[in-house]
Amino acid sequence: MFKDLITILQGDRARRAPVSTLVEVLRMRFGSQRLPFREYLAYRFHELDDLSAEERSRFLGSGRKFRLNYVCNDSQWFMLGEKLPMTLFMMATNIPMPKVHAVYDTSGRSLPGAVTLHDKDDVITYLRTTQHYPLFVKPSHSAYGWGAAGLKA
Q1: Which of the chain's ends, N or C, has fewer CB atoms near its CB within 10 Å?
Q2: Is 44 left (phi over 0), alpha (psi -120 to 50) or beta?
Q3: Spatial separation of the C-alpha atoms in residues 41 and 60, rounded to whole Å
Q4: Distance between CA atoms of residues 24 and 51, nearest Å
Q5: Which residues contact 89 (CB under 8 A, 6 or more apart)?
Q6: pLDDT tens, 115-149?
Q7: pTM value?
Q8: Residue-level pLDDT at 115
Q9: For residue 97, which of 114, 109, 121 has the smallest C-alpha distance?
Q10: Parallel, antiparallel, or unpaired: how do β-strands 102-104 and 115-117 relate?
């Protein structure tokens, strides 16, 4: 991260004085946008000079999506972020979806037709069995694809 900061402050593609860029990075990070430094880099704000200050102020960082989600969505939509109840709903209504092969949930919930992994040892045994690979895993209490991973043997 420090190397990236030096690059954007002094690099060939820096669009303005280093102090001005640093002020903008900090303002966008700690201001209402909550735009993390990695997103500042991803949007290439340090290179692009085609947006006005007012247009730049409209960008929101990942830290704001939770607030927007809360404000803009009905609380009854909670099930969309809960993988197991949503999967049961999809199964009951015949909505096409990938087959769930195993479930590990600390509260003991399970799904019909899926292996239930009760503890850490069950998970280790399951993951050490090469017939299960390749494998896609995802936390049962997450949203936005966080924690999802593809695994190969």
Answers
A1: N
A2: left
A3: 14
A4: 13
A5: 79, 95
A6: 999 889 999 999 999 888 888 888 777 666 677 78
A7: 0.51
A8: 92
A9: 114
A10: parallel
- Residue 113, CA atoms < 13 Å, CB-side half-sphere: 8
How many CA atoms lie less than 13 Å away from 95 in the CB half-sphere?
7
β-pair partners for 135 = 151
Strands (E), the chain: 102-104, 115-117, 135-137, 149-151
Residue showing tokens 């009760």: 118
Q: How far apart are CA 108 and CA 127, in angstroms?
A: 19
Place of tokens 């992994």: 117
C-alpha dist (Å) from residue 107 to 84, 140, 148: 11, 11, 20
Mean pLDDT of 67-94: 79
- For residue 9, pLDDT over 70 is answered with no
- Domain coordinates of the chain in residue numbers? 2-66, 75-151
- Amino acid found at 129: T
